Amino acid sequence: METGHALSSPLGRITISGEAIARIVGETARECYGVVGMAGRKWLPDRATRGIEIGGNGDGVTIDLHVVVEYGLNLAEVASTIRNRVGYEVERLTGLSVQTIEVHIEDVKRSG
Amino acid sequence: MTGLNGDREAVEKLVDAALASLEANRVRIDDLNVYPVPDGDTGTNLTMTVRAVADAIDHTSAASRHSLARDVARGALMGARGNSGVIFSQIIRGAADVLGETDEPVIDAQATARALRGASDAAYRAVRRPVEGTMLSVIRELAEEAEARAPEEPSLTQLLVDLVRRGEDALARTPDQLQILKDAGVVDAGGAGLVELVRGVAAAVSGEPLPAPAPIEEHLSHDAIHQELSKYRYCTVFLIEGKDLDRDELERELEQLGDSLLVVGDENAIKVHIHTDDPGAALSIGTRAGTIDRIEIANMHEQTLDREARLLSIVPDAPPAQSGVVAVVAGDGNRKLFESLAAQVGPISIVEGGQTMNPSTADLLRAVQSLDAEEAIILPNNSNIVLAAEHAAVNADRIVEVVAATSIPAGLAAMVSFDGSRDAAENAAEMREAIEAVVTGEVTLASRDVQLNGVAIVKGEWLGLADGDPVAGGVDFGDVSYAVVERLLAEPRELLTLLVGSDGADLDPLLARIATAHPALEVDVQQGGQAHYALLLGAE
């Protein structure tokens, strides 16, 4: 019936749409150190959610992010920070449990 | 002037001093860490990153300042740990790019200003949306300070004194720039690390000893301390060496074990990082693929708990709440529901009891006096306990309001309106209003024969009550429960809450009937765990 993710509370259910989660992910990812852009899945119409796929089921949310990272940074550490921070913010702001976060570094770019 | 070797020795001395300064403050900086994720490791990560730079200098065979700068930058890149380490590596790279290009024999104030500008610009370049109130704002202000001072041609010693002061100043302003820091009552951890690095360099240049590290901040708030624990217990890191290692296959196997998985490297050497409850299983996967080395396993829960204990010991107790709740509750599940509704809102004290186990006035009084709150509200949650609650209210050492909820679902509805920052009278008014909006029911086994609309219910059969009055009876649990539901839904309702008793009645047939008859109704089933009542119901 609904496409969103549901939280049960003593007062009833709260549903949160995939798009709302994607926006949180997008806002958070852009602030992650090393991320200079979002990439991939261009058919997603919305800039704020570009490069972000939200999925999952009753066991939690799954998140895929496609990012462009600044050249010359330690990619493993940047990916790890993105993963930690996105997971933390989504769980903090939605109360949903995050099952997996896949960070895809699509490109590295030398900016400036 | 200084030869190439001297250059390397000078850099080595500066890095060692920076590292010593950071190490002396590592724990304090860990404790400050609430952004980007409150995992309390910023000081440790920065220290390990700087240590990697020191190692790189130890091992370099660089024969020119240019190649020394390149090796230092590479050491920082390869050794970067955590978010702060990555930013630091970029700062080092920006500075090294500038210093590596200059042939001037002595690094003076002007060269330092250019290096800091390069560092700041490089740091800002590497993020789409820079966040102020972090290491970024501190390095930017250091660059601005150096540029403002450089034309006066101060000595490097004097410039560094000014830089430490400006860094401290920039750091002190981070809570005004980043709300999460202000909420937690801390300055930025990465920024604090950067200031300590500069302090170390300043001490080395001036020849003065390092000042004693600042004591752990006294005004940390509880929010800075209460960290959520990582889902998994052990942070496990190791290296697999072998031939034809299959990174994807390893990743597939390891991801079953936990999260925060990183599998990086090539077919000859792969580094694994995973948070898991079973480090042994992760290592076994490694030994099947090749030989393992450099194993590090850290108990993250212990780290977090240590940090909590350390910090809580210096935080003054929070002031008592305006009001708190004493609730009489039966069933573990129901107790948890009450506690979770009070969490973050105000204190609660649960008194075990209910239909067949009425707590005494003294029990209630004790619970009231134990509350860390100026005033109290008692939720008896049973009509037989209202009187004892009123007696307790009269005899208590503080103002007590009795909100006469006569069932657990009504008590839960009242809890939703509770707010410990308001006084008892205000809360009681809202909580009573909430109770008015809910109708409640019960399904139990008849403990004696009762007359119901002329029908006799025999002891031992199911008995359904709505707002305290018998409305249905019989041998079929589903039929009796459904009759109660229909009575509760006589007026339109949006939500039906079902609290399942300790016997764990099978609700599926009942839920199917409700879903068919009332498709728009939200139904929430919770394990109440109460004895005697197979089902408690509330509709609002």
Can you describe this structure?
The complex is a heterodimer of chains A (112) and B (540). Chain A is α+β, with helices and mostly antiparallel strands and 112 residues long. Chain A is built from two helices and six strands, in the order ββαβββαβ. Chain B has four domains: 211 residues, Alpha Horseshoe (Serine Threonine Protein Phosphatase 5, Tetratricopeptide repeat), CATH 1.25.40.340; 77 residues, Alpha-Beta Plaits, CATH 3.30.70; 116 residues, Rossmann fold (3-Layer(aba) Sandwich); 101 residues, Hypothetical Protein Tm841, Chain: A,domain 3. Chain B is built from 22 helices and 16 strands. In chain B, α1 packs across α11. The N terminus of chain B is likely disordered. The chains are: A alpha+beta (112), B alpha/beta (540).
CATH topology of chain A: Alpha-Beta Plaits
Give the count of structural domains of chain B: 4
Catalogue the unreliable spans of chain B: 1-6, 218-229
Main sheet summary of chain B: 6 strands, mixed
**Shape, per Cα inertia axes of chain A:** elongated
The end-to-end distance of chain B, rounded to whole angstroms, is 85 Å
DSSP summary, beta strand count of chain A:
6
Spatial extent as radius of gyration of chain A: 15 Å
N-to-C SSE string of chain A, H for helix and E for strand: EEHEEEHE
Helix content of chain A: 25-40%
Find the structural class of chain B using helix and strand composition.
alpha/beta
The number of helices of chain B is 22
Question: How many strands, which pairing sense, and closed or not: the largest β-sheet of chain A?
Answer: 4 strands, mixed
Summarize the largest interface: chains and residue counts: A-B, 33 and 43 residues
Mean pLDDT of chain B: 86
The name of the CATH superfamily of the largest domain in chain B reads: DhaL domain
CATH architecture of chain A: 2-Layer Sandwich
Low-confidence segments of chain A, given as residue ranges, are 41-45
For the secondary structure, the number of strands of chain B is 16
Residue share in helices of chain B? 40-55%
